[in-house]
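Structure first, sequence second, as always.
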C-alpha cells in the first residue's frame, strides 16, 4: 500500500503509554491494559519514577556505582543482562547514567509501558531508536495539533477526533463495509478488512452514498441497519445459480455464523441463559466466580475461526458436528418433559401443522416447505408418540447445516 513505515510508527505513537500486566495475581488469566500515566501512584514503575532517588537507595556505599551485591529486587534478578548491555566502561558495575539509560530502555519493552514511542532502527536493533511524535497518517484529515510530549488522554482524544472527522472517508466506509458484509454475506471490499487507496470496491457509488449518509446521520448505527435491511439487495432470496453468485449482491449469500452467534442462538432456542455448571478444574472455577461462562469459552474454542478467513473457506468440522449431536446440554433441553421450550410449544399447538410451523420458526426462523411438512407429518404418524417424534425433529433441526448458517 501507499502507507509508509514511518506513518505506521506515527500512528503507533498515539499508544506508547500502555501497560499489560496481571490485574490480580490471585486470579488466572486476568490481565489489564492500563495507561502508563495512571500508575503514578503505584511506586517505582510509575511515570514519575525518580531514577536518582532509587539509585541512591540501592547505592549503599555511596561510591556512585551500583554493584551486583547492592542490587535488589528486579534489578538484582537481571543485573548480569543489564551490565552486559549498558556497562560502557566494562567495570561490571553501573553508574547513575548507565542505570538511567537501562531504566529508559526497560520502559520500551512490550507490556511495560513507555513515556514516549521510538521507531526501531533497522541498522541498529539494540539502540533506542528514533523518537516519533504521533501524526495521523491520512494527511487530508483535519484534526487537532499535538504538542511534543502530549499525555495519554490528549493523544487518545486526538486520535478519536482524527478517526471520526468528517474529512476522514475511511472510517465511515469501514463501518458500512462491515455491516453490509455482516448482513449480506459479502462486503464492498473483500476480504472485509482489506481496504485502502489501492483497493477497488464493487458498486463504489452505493458504498459512497451509504458512507456519506452515515456521517450525515451522526454515525447512527440504527439508521445504517434500518437502511440496509430495507434494501432490495438484502431482501433477495438465496442463489443456487453459479452465474447469479458471480454478480455482486444479485442474491443473498449464505455464510457460516460466528461461534458467539451459534452459542447465543442455542441459548435462545433451548431457553438456557447465563453460566452453566461446569467441571473443568481451577480455570473453570475462576471463570464462574468472575461471572464468565466456561462452557461458552470451550464452545468458542471449538467453533471459532480466524475472522479474516473467507466465508467460502469456513466449513463445519467433524468435532463441531459431534459436539452438537452429543452434548448433554442440547440433549437434556430437547427432551419434551417438564417446562422445556418444546413441551410448552406442543401444549400450545394441538394441530401438528401449526406446531411444526412454530418449531421451524423457533429454530430456523422460517416456515417449513410443503415437502418438509409432509415428511415430518409422516414421521410423527410413524413414531406414534407425538412427544418423541417432535424431540427427534427438534434435535435434527438443531443439528442441520442451516442452523449454523446465516441465510
Amino acid at each position: 500500500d501507499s502507507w509508509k513505515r514511518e506513518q505506521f510508527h506515527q500512528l503507533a505513537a498515539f499508544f506508547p503509554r500502555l501497560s499489560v500486566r496481571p490485574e490480580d495475581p490471585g486470579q488466572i488469566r486476568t490481565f489489564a491494559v492500563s495507561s502508563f500515566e495512571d500508575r503514578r501512584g503505584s511506586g517505582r514503575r510509575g511515570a514519575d519514577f525518580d531514577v536518582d532517588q532509587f539509585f541512591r537507595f540501592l547505592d549503599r556505599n555511596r561510591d556512585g556505582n551500583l554493584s551486583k551485591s547492592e542490587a535488589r529486587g528486579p534489578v538484582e534478578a537481571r543485573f548480569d543482562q543489564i551490565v552486559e548491555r549498558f556497562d560502557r566502561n566494562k567495570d561490571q558495575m553501573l553508574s547513575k547514567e548507565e542505570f538511567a539509560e537501562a531504566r529508559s530502555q526497560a520502559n520500551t519493552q512490550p507490556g511495560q509501558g513507555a513515556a514516549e514511542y521510538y521507531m526501531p532502527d533497522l541498522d541498529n536493533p539494540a539502540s533506542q531508536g528514533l523518537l516519533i511524535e504521533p501524526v495521523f497518517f491520512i494527511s487530508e484529515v483535519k484534526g487537532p495539533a499535538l504538542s511534543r510530549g502530549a499525555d495519554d488522554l490528549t493523544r487518545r482524544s486526538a486520535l478519536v477526533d482524527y478517526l471520526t472527522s468528517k474529512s476522514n472517508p475511511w472510517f465511515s466506509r469501514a463501518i458500512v463495509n462491515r455491516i453490509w458484509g455482516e448482513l449480506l454475506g459479502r462486503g464492498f471490499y473483500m476480504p472485509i478488512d482489506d481496504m485502502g487507496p489501492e483497493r477497488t470496491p464493487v458498486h463504489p457509488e452505493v458504498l459512497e452514498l451509504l458512507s456519506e449518509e452515515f456521517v450525515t446521520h451522526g454515525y447512527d448505527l440504527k439508521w445504517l441497519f434500518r437502511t440496509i435491511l430495507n434494501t432490495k439487495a438484502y431482501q433477495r432470496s438465496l442463489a443456487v445459480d453459479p452465474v447469479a453468485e458471480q454478480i455482486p449482491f444479485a442474491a443473498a449469500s449464505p455464510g457460516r455464523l460466528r461461534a458467539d452467534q451459534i452459542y447465543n442462538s442455542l441459548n435462545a432456542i433451548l431457553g438456557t441463559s447465563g453460566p452453566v455448571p461446569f467441571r473443568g478444574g481451577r480455570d473453570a472455577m475462576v471463570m464462574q466466580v468472575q461471572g464468565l461462562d466456561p462452557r461458552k469459552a470451550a464452545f468458542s474454542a471449538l467453533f471459532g475461526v480466524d475472522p479474516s478467513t473467507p466465508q467460502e473457506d469456513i466449513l463445519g468440522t467433524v468435532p463441531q458436528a459431534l459436539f452438537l449431536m452429543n452434548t448433554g446440554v442440547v440433549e437434556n433441553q430437547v427432551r419434551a418433559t417438564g417446562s422445556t421450550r418444546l413441551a410448552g410449544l406442543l401444549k400450545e399447538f394441538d394441530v401438528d401443522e401449526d406446531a411444526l410451523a412454530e418449531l421451524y420458526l423457533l429454530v430456523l426462523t422460517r416456515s417449513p416447505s410443503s415437502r418438509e411438512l409432509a415428511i415430518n407429518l409422516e414421521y410423527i404418524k410413524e413414531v406414534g408418540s407425538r412427544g418423541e417424534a417432535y424431540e427427534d425433529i427438534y434435535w435434527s433441526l438443531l443439528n442441520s447445516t442451516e442452523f449454523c448458517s446465516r441465510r
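Margin note: Residues 16 and 117 are 5 Å apart (CA to CA).
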